[in-house]
Protein backbone atom coordinates (compact mmCIF):
# COMPACT_ATOMS: atom_id res chain seq x y z
CA UNK A 1 0.00 0.00 0.00
CA UNK A 2 2.91 2.34 0.78
CA UNK A 3 4.11 1.83 -2.77
CA UNK A 4 0.66 2.56 -4.17
CA UNK A 5 0.63 5.82 -2.24
CA UNK A 6 3.70 6.87 -4.19
CA UNK A 7 5.44 8.50 -1.24
CA UNK A 8 2.39 10.38 0.01
CA UNK A 9 1.00 9.79 3.50
CA UNK A 10 -2.50 9.20 2.20
CA UNK A 11 -4.27 8.40 -1.04
CA UNK A 12 -6.26 11.58 -0.69
CA UNK A 13 -3.13 13.73 -0.71
CA UNK A 14 -1.71 11.79 -3.63
CA UNK A 15 -4.94 12.27 -5.54
CA UNK A 16 -5.04 15.99 -4.75
CA UNK A 17 -1.52 16.25 -6.19
CA UNK A 18 -2.44 14.18 -9.22
CA UNK A 19 -4.93 16.79 -10.38
CA UNK A 20 -2.68 18.62 -12.83
CA UNK A 21 -2.04 15.35 -14.67
CA UNK A 22 -5.58 14.09 -14.24
CA UNK A 23 -7.02 17.24 -15.81
CA UNK A 24 -4.48 16.99 -18.61
CA UNK A 25 -5.47 13.37 -19.21
CA UNK A 26 -9.09 14.42 -19.30
CA UNK A 27 -8.69 16.99 -22.05
CA UNK A 28 -5.85 15.26 -23.92
CA UNK A 29 -6.89 14.39 -27.46
CA UNK A 30 -10.19 16.19 -27.02
CA UNK A 31 -9.03 19.75 -27.62
CA UNK A 32 -7.51 20.94 -30.87
CA UNK A 33 -6.59 24.30 -29.50
CA UNK A 34 -5.32 26.00 -32.62
CA UNK A 35 -8.20 24.83 -34.78
CA UNK A 36 -10.72 25.67 -32.06
CA UNK A 37 -12.21 22.18 -32.14
CA UNK A 38 -13.40 19.93 -29.33
CA UNK A 39 -13.73 16.24 -30.11
CA UNK A 40 -15.63 13.96 -27.78
CA UNK A 41 -16.80 10.78 -29.44
CA UNK A 42 -19.79 10.23 -27.17
CA UNK A 43 -21.00 13.77 -27.79
CA UNK A 44 -20.15 13.85 -31.51
CA UNK A 45 -22.10 10.68 -32.18
CA UNK A 46 -25.28 12.16 -30.72
CA UNK A 47 -24.68 15.83 -31.30
CA UNK A 48 -28.18 16.60 -32.63
CA UNK A 49 -29.63 15.41 -29.33
CA UNK A 50 -27.63 18.04 -27.47
CA UNK A 51 -28.29 20.79 -30.01
CA UNK A 52 -32.02 20.20 -29.92
CA UNK A 53 -32.39 19.52 -26.22
CA UNK A 54 -35.11 21.70 -24.71
CA UNK A 55 -33.64 20.93 -21.31
CA UNK A 56 -30.78 19.17 -19.61
CA UNK A 57 -31.34 17.31 -16.35
CA UNK A 58 -28.26 16.39 -14.37
CA UNK A 59 -28.56 13.56 -11.85
CA UNK A 60 -25.85 12.63 -9.36
CA UNK A 61 -25.00 12.17 -5.68
CA UNK A 62 -22.43 13.65 -3.30
CA UNK A 63 -19.43 15.36 -4.83
CA UNK A 64 -20.61 14.45 -8.32
CA UNK A 65 -23.78 16.41 -7.62
CA UNK A 66 -21.61 19.43 -6.82
CA UNK A 67 -19.86 19.02 -10.18
CA UNK A 68 -23.35 18.98 -11.67
CA UNK A 69 -24.12 22.31 -10.03
CA UNK A 70 -20.97 23.86 -11.49
CA UNK A 71 -22.07 22.45 -14.85
CA UNK A 72 -25.46 24.11 -14.47
CA UNK A 73 -23.80 27.52 -14.38
CA UNK A 74 -21.54 26.66 -17.30
CA UNK A 75 -24.21 25.06 -19.51
CA UNK A 76 -26.75 27.78 -18.95
CA UNK A 77 -24.28 30.55 -19.64
CA UNK A 78 -22.67 28.97 -22.70
CA UNK A 79 -25.44 26.93 -24.30
CA UNK A 80 -28.56 28.76 -23.06
CA UNK A 81 -30.19 25.36 -22.50
CA UNK A 82 -32.12 25.31 -19.20
CA UNK A 83 -30.50 22.94 -16.73
CA UNK A 84 -31.86 21.23 -13.66
CA UNK A 85 -29.57 19.50 -11.20
CA UNK A 86 -31.15 16.77 -9.14
CA UNK A 87 -30.09 14.52 -6.34
CA UNK A 88 -30.59 11.12 -7.95
CA UNK A 89 -32.24 9.83 -4.78
CA UNK A 90 -34.91 12.53 -4.93
CA UNK A 91 -35.38 12.46 -8.67
CA UNK A 92 -36.10 8.74 -8.80
CA UNK A 93 -38.96 8.88 -6.33
CA UNK A 94 -40.78 12.07 -7.19
CA UNK A 95 -42.39 11.12 -10.46
CA UNK A 96 -40.28 13.69 -12.35
CA UNK A 97 -41.44 15.30 -15.58
CA UNK A 98 -39.28 14.02 -18.40
CA UNK A 99 -39.92 14.80 -22.04
CA UNK A 100 -38.73 12.83 -25.00
CA UNK A 101 -36.08 15.29 -26.19
CA UNK A 102 -34.63 15.89 -22.72
CA UNK A 103 -31.00 15.08 -22.23
CA UNK A 104 -30.18 13.54 -18.88
CA UNK A 105 -26.55 13.68 -17.80
CA UNK A 106 -25.61 11.24 -15.03
CA UNK A 107 -22.37 12.05 -13.25
CA UNK A 108 -20.67 9.35 -11.23
CA UNK A 109 -17.05 8.71 -10.34
CA UNK A 110 -17.57 5.01 -9.60
CA UNK A 111 -20.34 4.45 -12.10
CA UNK A 112 -21.95 2.20 -9.51
CA UNK A 113 -24.05 4.47 -7.29
CA UNK A 114 -27.42 2.81 -6.82
CA UNK A 115 -29.56 5.96 -6.75
CA UNK A 116 -27.91 7.38 -9.87
CA UNK A 117 -28.40 4.07 -11.65
CA UNK A 118 -32.08 4.03 -10.72
CA UNK A 119 -32.50 7.62 -11.94
CA UNK A 120 -30.97 6.63 -15.29
CA UNK A 121 -33.30 3.68 -15.72
CA UNK A 122 -36.29 5.87 -14.94
CA UNK A 123 -35.21 8.56 -17.43
CA UNK A 124 -34.51 6.00 -20.14
CA UNK A 125 -37.89 4.42 -19.58
CA UNK A 126 -39.50 7.79 -20.25
CA UNK A 127 -37.68 8.40 -23.50
CA UNK A 128 -34.83 10.67 -22.43
CA UNK A 129 -31.40 10.45 -23.97
CA UNK A 130 -29.04 9.57 -21.13
CA UNK A 131 -25.39 10.54 -21.17
CA UNK A 132 -22.90 9.36 -18.55
CA UNK A 133 -19.88 11.15 -17.15
CA UNK A 134 -18.03 8.40 -15.29
CA UNK A 135 -14.51 7.75 -14.17
CA UNK A 136 -14.47 3.98 -13.90
CA UNK A 137 -14.26 2.46 -17.35
CA UNK A 138 -16.81 -0.28 -18.00
CA UNK A 139 -18.77 0.56 -14.83
CA UNK A 140 -22.48 -0.20 -14.60
CA UNK A 141 -23.55 3.38 -15.28
CA UNK A 142 -21.22 3.73 -18.24
CA UNK A 143 -22.86 0.63 -19.71
CA UNK A 144 -26.43 1.61 -18.89
CA UNK A 145 -26.26 5.07 -20.51
CA UNK A 146 -26.81 5.70 -24.24
CA UNK A 147 -23.44 7.41 -24.57
CA UNK A 148 -20.88 9.09 -22.39
CA UNK A 149 -17.50 10.63 -21.76
CA UNK A 150 -14.97 9.23 -19.33
CA UNK A 151 -13.09 11.55 -17.02
CA UNK A 152 -9.80 9.58 -17.26
CA UNK A 153 -8.80 10.68 -13.74
CA UNK A 154 -7.26 7.30 -12.96
CA UNK A 155 -8.25 5.25 -9.90
CA UNK A 156 -9.54 7.30 -6.99
CA UNK A 157 -9.01 5.43 -3.72
CA UNK A 158 -9.59 8.09 -1.05
CA UNK A 159 -13.25 8.04 -0.03
CA UNK A 160 -13.38 11.84 -0.18
CA UNK A 161 -13.49 12.63 -3.87
CA UNK A 162 -10.93 15.10 -5.21
CA UNK A 163 -9.56 14.53 -8.71
CA UNK A 164 -12.85 13.02 -9.83
CA UNK A 165 -14.52 16.36 -9.09
CA UNK A 166 -12.12 18.55 -11.05
CA UNK A 167 -12.04 16.16 -14.00
CA UNK A 168 -15.84 15.94 -14.07
CA UNK A 169 -15.93 19.73 -14.29
CA UNK A 170 -13.35 19.58 -17.09
CA UNK A 171 -15.42 17.16 -19.16
CA UNK A 172 -18.64 19.08 -18.60
CA UNK A 173 -16.95 22.38 -19.49
CA UNK A 174 -15.66 20.96 -22.77
CA UNK A 175 -19.14 19.69 -23.58
CA UNK A 176 -20.73 23.06 -22.89
CA UNK A 177 -18.12 24.92 -24.95
CA UNK A 178 -18.57 22.54 -27.85
CA UNK A 179 -22.35 22.90 -27.88
CA UNK A 180 -22.07 26.65 -27.44
CA UNK A 181 -19.83 26.98 -30.48
CA UNK A 182 -22.15 24.83 -32.61
CA UNK A 183 -25.13 26.92 -31.55
CA UNK A 184 -23.32 30.07 -32.63
CA UNK A 185 -23.27 31.47 -29.09
CA UNK A 186 -19.52 31.29 -28.58
CA UNK A 187 -17.45 32.66 -31.46
CA UNK A 188 -14.48 30.81 -32.85
CA UNK A 189 -12.15 33.37 -31.27
CA UNK A 190 -13.84 33.08 -27.88
CA UNK A 191 -13.70 29.29 -28.00
CA UNK A 192 -10.04 29.47 -28.93
CA UNK A 193 -9.46 31.70 -25.91
CA UNK A 194 -11.20 29.18 -23.60
CA UNK A 195 -9.25 26.27 -25.00
CA UNK A 196 -5.96 28.13 -24.61
CA UNK A 197 -6.86 28.86 -21.03
CA UNK A 198 -7.97 25.27 -20.36
CA UNK A 199 -4.58 24.13 -21.55
CA UNK A 200 -2.98 26.31 -18.88
CA UNK A 201 -5.16 24.96 -16.06
CA UNK A 202 -2.88 22.03 -15.09
CA UNK A 203 0.04 24.43 -14.55
CA UNK A 204 -2.22 26.75 -12.59
CA UNK A 205 -3.42 23.88 -10.40
CA UNK A 206 0.25 23.09 -9.83
CA UNK A 207 0.76 26.68 -8.78
CA UNK A 208 -2.25 26.54 -6.41
CA UNK A 209 -0.78 23.41 -4.81
CA UNK A 210 2.30 25.43 -3.83
CA UNK A 211 0.25 27.02 -1.05
CA UNK A 212 0.29 23.70 0.79
CA UNK A 213 2.57 24.79 3.65
CA UNK A 214 0.63 28.01 4.15
CA UNK A 215 -2.64 26.05 4.16
CA UNK A 216 -1.18 23.78 6.84
CA UNK A 217 -0.70 26.85 9.02
CA UNK A 218 -4.32 27.86 8.44
CA UNK A 219 -5.41 24.32 9.34
CA UNK A 220 -3.37 24.46 12.55
CA UNK A 221 -5.09 27.69 13.54
CA UNK A 222 -8.66 26.48 13.03
CA UNK A 223 -8.47 22.72 13.56
CA UNK A 224 -10.32 22.90 16.86
CA UNK A 225 -13.29 24.84 15.55
CA UNK A 226 -16.59 23.02 15.93
CA UNK A 227 -18.26 24.70 12.96
CA UNK A 228 -17.11 26.09 9.64
CA UNK A 229 -18.95 28.12 7.07
CA UNK A 230 -18.02 28.15 3.36
CA UNK A 231 -19.27 30.90 1.08
CA UNK A 232 -19.06 31.53 -2.64
CA UNK A 233 -21.13 33.05 -5.41
CA UNK A 234 -21.86 32.13 -9.00
CA UNK A 235 -19.53 29.45 -10.31
CA UNK A 236 -17.97 29.24 -6.89
CA UNK A 237 -21.13 28.65 -4.92
CA UNK A 238 -20.96 24.89 -5.65
CA UNK A 239 -17.27 25.00 -4.72
CA UNK A 240 -18.31 26.32 -1.29
CA UNK A 241 -20.69 23.36 -0.94
CA UNK A 242 -17.91 20.99 -1.94
CA UNK A 243 -15.43 22.59 0.47
CA UNK A 244 -17.86 22.11 3.34
CA UNK A 245 -18.57 18.51 2.32
CA UNK A 246 -14.85 17.69 2.22
CA UNK A 247 -14.37 19.01 5.76
CA UNK A 248 -17.38 17.14 7.12
CA UNK A 249 -16.43 13.88 5.44
CA UNK A 250 -12.93 13.52 6.80
CA UNK A 251 -12.57 15.74 9.89
CA UNK A 252 -16.12 15.31 11.28
CA UNK A 253 -16.32 19.05 11.89
CA UNK A 254 -19.72 20.44 11.10
CA UNK A 255 -19.55 22.68 8.04
CA UNK A 256 -22.08 24.38 5.83
CA UNK A 257 -21.67 25.74 2.34
CA UNK A 258 -23.83 28.66 1.32
CA UNK A 259 -24.23 31.16 -1.48
CA UNK A 260 -22.49 34.20 0.01
CA UNK A 261 -25.47 36.54 -0.33
CA UNK A 262 -27.83 34.04 1.25
CA UNK A 263 -25.78 34.19 4.45
CA UNK A 264 -27.93 37.03 5.70
CA UNK A 265 -30.97 34.77 5.69
CA UNK A 266 -29.65 32.43 8.34
CA UNK A 267 -26.01 31.49 8.81
CA UNK A 268 -25.03 35.02 9.77
CA UNK A 269 -26.74 34.32 13.11
CA UNK A 270 -24.03 31.74 13.83
CA UNK A 271 -21.09 34.03 13.22
CA UNK A 272 -18.97 34.95 16.22
CA UNK A 273 -15.26 34.92 17.05
CA UNK A 274 -15.31 31.09 17.13
CA UNK A 275 -16.49 30.71 13.55
CA UNK A 276 -14.04 30.31 10.67
CA UNK A 277 -15.58 31.34 7.37
CA UNK A 278 -13.87 30.32 4.14
CA UNK A 279 -14.91 32.78 1.46
CA UNK A 280 -14.14 32.30 -2.22
CA UNK A 281 -13.47 35.81 -3.44
CA UNK A 282 -11.67 35.58 -6.75
CA UNK A 283 -11.39 38.78 -8.69
CA UNK A 284 -13.84 37.79 -11.40
CA UNK A 285 -17.56 37.50 -10.84
CA UNK A 286 -19.33 39.41 -8.07
CA UNK A 287 -16.03 40.32 -6.44
CA UNK A 288 -17.22 43.58 -4.89
CA UNK A 289 -20.34 41.91 -3.58
CA UNK A 290 -18.33 39.15 -1.96
CA UNK A 291 -16.06 41.76 -0.42
CA UNK A 292 -19.08 43.36 1.20
CA UNK A 293 -20.15 39.92 2.48
CA UNK A 294 -16.68 39.62 4.00
CA UNK A 295 -17.14 42.98 5.71
CA UNK A 296 -20.38 41.71 7.24
CA UNK A 297 -18.57 38.66 8.62
CA UNK A 298 -15.77 40.81 9.95
CA UNK A 299 -18.10 43.16 11.77
CA UNK A 300 -19.47 40.09 13.57
CA UNK A 301 -15.94 39.00 14.46
CA UNK A 302 -15.95 35.86 12.30
CA UNK A 303 -12.55 34.52 11.28
CA UNK A 304 -12.05 34.95 7.55
CA UNK A 305 -10.10 32.67 5.26
CA UNK A 306 -10.18 34.28 1.81
CA UNK A 307 -9.57 32.26 -1.33
CA UNK A 308 -8.38 35.02 -3.61
CA UNK A 309 -6.76 35.73 -6.95
CA UNK A 310 -2.99 36.14 -6.91
CA UNK A 311 -2.02 39.70 -6.05
CA UNK A 312 -5.32 40.55 -4.35
CA UNK A 313 -5.01 43.35 -1.81
CA UNK A 314 -8.59 44.22 -0.89
CA UNK A 315 -9.57 40.91 0.73
CA UNK A 316 -6.08 40.61 2.19
CA UNK A 317 -6.79 43.78 4.12
CA UNK A 318 -9.90 42.26 5.69
CA UNK A 319 -9.19 38.55 6.07
CA UNK A 320 -7.32 36.70 8.81
CA UNK A 321 -5.71 34.52 6.15
CA UNK A 322 -5.71 34.59 2.39
CA UNK A 323 -4.86 31.71 0.10
CA UNK A 324 -4.06 32.69 -3.45
CA UNK A 325 -4.93 30.93 -6.66
CA UNK A 326 -3.77 32.02 -10.14
CA UNK A 327 -6.03 34.15 -12.29
CA UNK A 328 -8.14 32.45 -14.94
CA UNK A 329 -11.36 32.95 -16.90
CA UNK A 330 -14.33 33.10 -14.58
CA UNK A 331 -15.99 29.88 -15.75
CA UNK A 332 -12.78 27.96 -15.06
CA UNK A 333 -12.18 29.29 -11.54
CA UNK A 334 -13.77 26.26 -9.78
CA UNK A 335 -10.89 24.13 -11.09
CA UNK A 336 -8.53 26.30 -9.04
CA UNK A 337 -10.53 27.45 -6.02
CA UNK A 338 -11.35 23.84 -5.13
CA UNK A 339 -7.68 22.98 -4.59
CA UNK A 340 -6.98 24.95 -1.38
CA UNK A 341 -10.26 23.77 0.15
CA UNK A 342 -9.28 20.14 -0.47
CA UNK A 343 -5.91 20.74 1.18
CA UNK A 344 -7.46 22.61 4.10
CA UNK A 345 -9.79 19.75 4.97
CA UNK A 346 -7.03 17.22 4.44
CA UNK A 347 -4.65 18.92 6.87
CA UNK A 348 -7.31 19.52 9.50
CA UNK A 349 -8.31 15.85 9.40
CA UNK A 350 -4.69 14.69 9.64
CA UNK A 351 -4.03 17.04 12.57
CA UNK A 352 -7.10 15.69 14.35
CA UNK A 353 -5.84 12.16 13.83
CA UNK A 354 -8.74 11.05 11.66
CA UNK A 355 -8.69 8.25 9.14
CA UNK A 356 -8.47 10.44 6.06
CA UNK A 357 -8.74 7.77 3.39
CA UNK A 358 -11.46 5.77 5.06
CA UNK A 359 -13.62 8.03 7.15
CA UNK A 360 -16.11 6.44 9.50
CA UNK A 361 -19.54 5.55 8.15
CA UNK A 362 -18.69 6.48 4.56
CA UNK A 363 -18.15 4.26 1.53
CA UNK A 364 -16.35 5.02 -1.70
CA UNK A 365 -19.28 3.88 -3.71
CA UNK A 366 -22.78 3.43 -2.41
CA UNK A 367 -24.25 0.52 -4.30
CA UNK A 368 -27.26 0.05 -2.05
CA UNK A 369 -30.06 2.45 -1.35
C1 LIG B 1 -20.10 8.39 -1.96
C2 LIG B 1 -18.65 8.85 -1.97
C3 LIG B 1 -18.55 10.28 -2.49
C4 LIG B 1 -19.18 10.38 -3.86
C5 LIG B 1 -20.62 9.85 -3.86
C6 LIG B 1 -21.14 9.69 -5.27
O1 LIG B 1 -20.80 9.13 -1.03
O2 LIG B 1 -18.12 8.77 -0.66
O3 LIG B 1 -17.19 10.66 -2.58
O4 LIG B 1 -19.19 11.71 -4.29
O5 LIG B 1 -20.69 8.56 -3.26
O6 LIG B 1 -20.39 8.69 -5.90
P1 LIG B 1 -20.21 8.54 -7.45
O7 LIG B 1 -19.28 7.37 -7.59
O8 LIG B 1 -21.56 8.27 -8.01
O9 LIG B 1 -19.64 9.80 -7.97
Automatic annotation (TrEMBL):
Q: What is its EC number?
A: 2.6.1.16
- Reaction(s) the record says it catalyses: D-fructose 6-phosphate + L-glutamine = D-glucosamine 6-phosphate + L-glutamate
Keyword Cytoplasm (UniProt): yes
What gene does this protein come from? glmS
The record describes its quaternary structure and partners as:
Homodimer.
Q: What's the main place this protein lives?
A: cytoplasm
Annotated SIS domain ranges read 46-185, 218-359
Q: What is this protein called?
A: Glutamine--fructose-6-phosphate aminotransferase [isomerizing]
Q: Which residues form a coiled coil?
A: none
Is Repeat tagged as a keyword?
Answer: yes
Q: Which UniProt keywords apply?
A: Aminotransferase, Cytoplasm, Glutamine amidotransferase, Repeat, Transferase
The entry's localization annotation reads:
Cytoplasm
> Span of the full-length protein shown?
247 to 615 of 615
Which stretch is the leader sequence? none
> What is the role of this chain?
Catalyzes the first step in hexosamine metabolism, converting fructose-6P into glucosamine-6P using glutamine as a nitrogen source.
- The active site is formed by 364 (for fru-6p isomerization activity)
Amino acid sequence: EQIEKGGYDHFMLKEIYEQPDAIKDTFRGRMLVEQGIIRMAGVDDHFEKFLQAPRIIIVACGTSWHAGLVAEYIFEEFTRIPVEVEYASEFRYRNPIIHKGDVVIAISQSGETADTMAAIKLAKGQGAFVFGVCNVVGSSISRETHAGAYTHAGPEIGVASTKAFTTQITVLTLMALKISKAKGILSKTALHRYLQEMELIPAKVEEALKSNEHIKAVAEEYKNASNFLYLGRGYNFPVALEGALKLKEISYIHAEGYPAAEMKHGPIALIDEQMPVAVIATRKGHYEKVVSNIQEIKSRKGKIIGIVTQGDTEVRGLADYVIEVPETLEALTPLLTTIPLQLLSYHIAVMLGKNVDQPRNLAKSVTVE
